[in-house]
């Protein structure tokens, strides 16, 4: 029995039915930006990973600095509980994150760090923290959140509750997700006018004003909405959210899990707007894709207010919180970013994607092509045929994971201009082969 057959007998893959028929490839080796795969028939393929393994492997596979950091930490201890104990890798990581976090004159700094298991959990912690803050500040009725349509913040229950109420999972769990408040999606960055932004501000302000007595915070992905549609919106809209939050005594939570650490061309997407949130979530690229780790950062005021509250603590504590092995690798990853080359790397990758994807605009099946930082997106007019496009892309030497009506790339920063161009060319070729003259009614889609 092959490995893929054994997988189908016992494993359950993300956003897929048990024993589903979506194609699988066995990864036999990964190095740099390359995956070496074996298909169900035993055929071998060498492909460029345009996904950075869901946006996390920004420094490439088998990075020598990250490998060395993991080995060093394994030589001392791989894990200790974080209740009542501390260790060097966690302290160093907190200091690095605080030093890197968005800042602006006159705004409180993000200076307290809570380490979490994953991006979804960091969002859960952020939402808990916002409610505890409002309660400790004497506003216990403030327990709902203002979110933005098109947003995605994770798959755990509180996180699902602030995802888009239509395209998210609300319909699958009726009555179990919190009834939050949803503002319209911001206008698209490529076409937004000053009037569009003004009207959007008015709509969000009206919602915030109507519900201010019951809202704890505003939550948003700044500038780029990820799994909700790879949607880019103006930085001015992030400033609008900051101003509305301040006006109504709400906290501003920015979810930088997908956008943090340079992906959009700034270190954090909030930096495009010059905005400092009260709470920020990071994950994915934090460890360079080596281990699961995320973090929630907040201002000193938020931390101190909650600590003075009746509970006397932030009510969360994962078993693997502050895992030393993950923290050590995260420090190595952030050390690479601190070196400063990420900005030119992201620009190089982005330019390669933009040039390579340009021809997709000529395809009848394509609705839009857009890029920001090291992100490239082909938006189709119909739901993507995930299996067919994935197979076609592999045949062209590229690994992608399409979803909804999108075929997109978020490559490792170490990708050369030629590799980024080859990824884009493979995406365009796959879309052309599968979708350019297909009947949309014949197609089926899948979640990311």
UniProtKB/TrEMBL annotation:
Where does the protein principally reside?
cytoplasm
Pfam families in the cross-refs: Aminotran_3
The annotated site for Participates in the substrate recognition with KAPA and in a stacking interaction with the adenine ring of SAM falls at 15
**Regions that span the bilayer:** none
Q: Which reaction does it catalyse?
A: (8S)-8-amino-7-oxononanoate + S-adenosyl-L-methionine = S-adenosyl-4-methylsulfanyl-2-oxobutanoate + (7R,8S)-7,8-diammoniononanoate
Q: Which residues bind pyridoxal 5'-phosphate?
A: 119-120, 255, 318-319
Q: Which cofactor does it need?
A: pyridoxal 5'-phosphate
Cited function? Catalyzes the transfer of the alpha-amino group from S-adenosyl-L-methionine (SAM) to 7-keto-8-aminopelargonic acid (KAPA) to form 7,8-diaminopelargonic acid (DAPA). It is the only aminotransferase known to utilize SAM as an amino donor.
Mind telling me which PANTHER family this protein's record contains? ADENOSYLMETHIONINE-8-AMINO-7-OXONONANOATE AMINOTRANSFERASE
Name of protein: Adenosylmethionine-8-amino-7-oxononanoate aminotransferase
Q: Give the species.
A: Arthrobacter cavernae
């Amino acid at each position: 029995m092959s490995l893929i057959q054994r997988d189908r007998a016992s494993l359950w893959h993300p956003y897929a039915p048990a024993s589903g028929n979506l194609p699988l490839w066995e990864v036999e080796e990964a190095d740099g930006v390359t995956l070496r795969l074996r298909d169900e028939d035993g055929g071998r393929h060498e492909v460029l990973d345009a996904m950075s393994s869901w946006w996390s492997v920004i420094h490439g596979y088998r990075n020598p600095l990250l490998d060395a950091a993991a080995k060093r930490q394994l030589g001392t201890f791989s894990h200790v509980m974080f209740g009542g104990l501390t260790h060097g890798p966690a302290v160093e990581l907190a200091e690095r994150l605080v030093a890197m976090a968005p800042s602006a004159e006159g705004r409180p700094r993000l200076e307290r760090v809570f380490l979490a298991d994953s991006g979804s959990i960091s969002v859960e912690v952020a939402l808990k923290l916002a409610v505890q803050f409002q309660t400790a500040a004497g506003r216990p009725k403030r327990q709902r959140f203002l979110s933005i349509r098109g947003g995605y913040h994770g798959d755990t229950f509180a996180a699902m509750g602030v995802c888009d109420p239509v395209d998210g999972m609300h319909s699958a769990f009726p009555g179990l997700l919190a009834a939050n408040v949803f503002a319209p999606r911001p206008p698209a960055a490529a076409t937004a006018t000053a009037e569009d932004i003004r009207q959007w501000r008015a709509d969000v302000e009206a919602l915030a004003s109507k519900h201010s007595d019951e809202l704890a915070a505003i939550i948003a992905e700044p500038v780029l909405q990820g799994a909700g549609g790879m949607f880019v919106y103006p930085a001015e809209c992030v400033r609008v959210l900051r101003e509305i939050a301040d006006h109504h005594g709400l906290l501003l939570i920015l979810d930088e899990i997908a956008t943090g650490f340079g992906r959009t061309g700034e270190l954090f997407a909030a930096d495009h707007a010059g905005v400092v949130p009260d709470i920020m979530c990071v994950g994915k690229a934090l460890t360079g894709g080596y281990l699961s780790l995320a973090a929630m950062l907040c201002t000193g005021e938020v931390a101190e207010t909650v600590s003075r509250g009746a509970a006397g603590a932030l009510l969360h504590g994962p078993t693997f919180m502050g895992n030393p092995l993950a923290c050590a690798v995260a420090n190595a990853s952030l050390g690479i970013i601190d070196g400063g080359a990420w900005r030119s790397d992201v620009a190089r990758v982005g330019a390669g994607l933009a040039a390579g994807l340009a021809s997709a605009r000529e395809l009848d099946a394509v609705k839009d092509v857009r890029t920001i930082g090291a992100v490239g997106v082909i938006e189709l007019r119909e739901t993507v045929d995930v299996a067919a496009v994935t197979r076609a892309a592999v045949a062209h030497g590229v690994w992608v994971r399409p979803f909804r009506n999108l075929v997109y790339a978020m490559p490792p920063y170490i990708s050369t201009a030629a590799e980024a161009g080859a990824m884009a060319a493979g995406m365009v070729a796959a879309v052309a082969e599968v979708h350019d003259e297909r009947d949309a009614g014949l197609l089926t889609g899948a979640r990311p």
